[in-house]
Amino acid sequence: MKKILFISFLAVVIVSCSVDPEIKPAVTAESVKEIIPPGWPTPHYNFNNNPLTLDGFTLGRNLFYDPILSSNNAISCGSCHQQFAAFSNSGHDFSHGINGLLGNRNAPAIQNLNWNPYFMHDGGILNIEVMPLGPITNPVEMNESLSNVIQKLSTSNKYRQLFTKAYGNDTINSQRIFKAIAQFMGTMYSYNSKYDNVKSGKDNFTTQEQSGYNLFVQKCASCHKEPLFSDYNFRNIGLSVNIALHDSGRARITGNPLDKYKFKTPSLRNIEKTAPYMHDGRFYTLDQCLTHYISGIVSSPTLDPQLSSGITMTIQEKNDIIVFLKTLTDTKFLTDYRYSEIH
User: Which pTM does this prediction carry?
Assistant: First the structure.
């Protein structure tokens, strides 16, 4: 009898010491809305033809994290776009697709997409509503066809209900799939970094951060324009050509030799969290990135003229710029429950 009582007591202790499951707050209709932060330009994409609703956002959120979009039901959008890394692929130089296959480019961050006139490193996609088509149909990423995706979703009670809530009936087609994902990704706004708080008068830079900001404006802002920290143009920044990939960049899309080795200027928001860097993930630290501009520029006919002599900076100036770049980290965005995976 004593043995039974002891075992029962032990069971109670074990249960009482277990960790409670995380309870995430519910996403509300009020928290799903279009935002243009003060001082920001007009976005290229708005929701006029894709009315933003809580049910549409929720459908897009489910689709973003569901491996059902891949041919082997193992890879989701969220597999290569992780929230804690500003929806880049932390620690991976190339994206990892089905069956362990590797892509040939680094997975870019997902943030403030409505301001992007082009998508992908080479600008091969022009609209956020069709952006998922690239990875879904890419043979080394998700390797699936739209017809199979629609068939799989149509046989799911869960998705028939989600589509009915979002659109009024359970018709599932590519347009509805892409519009829902656009509602989710298009509302991934990052505008609450220390930099933003300084600009709005709520905070102040440290002496070193201010020095870094001043240097950034002098040496970097012509391409990485505030407040989005990109001009979204295509540039050859003097990277040595990866012989194994021989990625010609923008020229793959335009066929124009003048676009050879040009890639889209990335936003620097949350740059502290999105390593590795460059289109092929060759640099793992911000120090390596800046060192490239100081002494690593490789000359070629399409090199950006602004980089013909590199960028001059001392070690201290480089360190100050890096300290400033870390003020672009938006912790609220990186932990916002609205963008996290649904469990």
Answer: 0.91
- Alpha-carbon distance of 113 to 119, in angstroms, equals 9
**Domain co-membership, 78 together with 144:** yes
Backbone torsions φ then ψ of 263, nearest 5 degrees: -135, 155
Within 10 Å of residue 244's Cβ, how many Cβ atoms?
8
Are 222 and 317 found together in one domain?
Answer: yes
**C-alpha to C-alpha distance for 45 and 58, rounded to whole angstroms:** 20
Predicted pLDDT at 204 = 98
User: Is 246 found in the same domain as 204?
Assistant: yes
**Close Cβ partners of 135 (under 8 Å, ≥ 6 residues apart):** 77, 80, 95, 141, 142
Q: Are residues 210 and 87 in the same domain?
A: no
For helices 146-154 and 157-167, the axis angle rounded to 10 degrees is: 100
Interatomic CA distance for residues 38 and 34, integer angstroms: 13
CA dist., res. 49 & res. 51, Å (int) = 6
Enter the tokens of residue 92: 């991976």
What distance lies between CA 298 and its chain's CA centroid?
A: 28
pLDDT tens readout for residues 155-184: 999 999 999 999 999 999 999 999 999 999
* C-alpha–C-alpha distance, residues 107 and 155, integer Å: 31
Angle at 294 (CA atoms; ends 288, 297), nearest 5 degrees: 90
Torsion of CA 211, 212, 213, 216, to 10 degrees: 130
Both 174 and 223 in one domain: the answer is no
Q: Both 96 and 200 in a single domain?
A: no
pLDDT tens for 140-156 read 999 999 999 999 999 99
Strand partners, 303: 236
Which residues are CB-contacts of 112 (< 8 A; sequence separation ≥ 6)?
A: 188, 189, 190, 191, 228, 267, 269
Q: What element of type H or E holds 255?
A: none
Contacts of 61 (CB under 8 A, 6+ apart): 184, 338, 339, 342
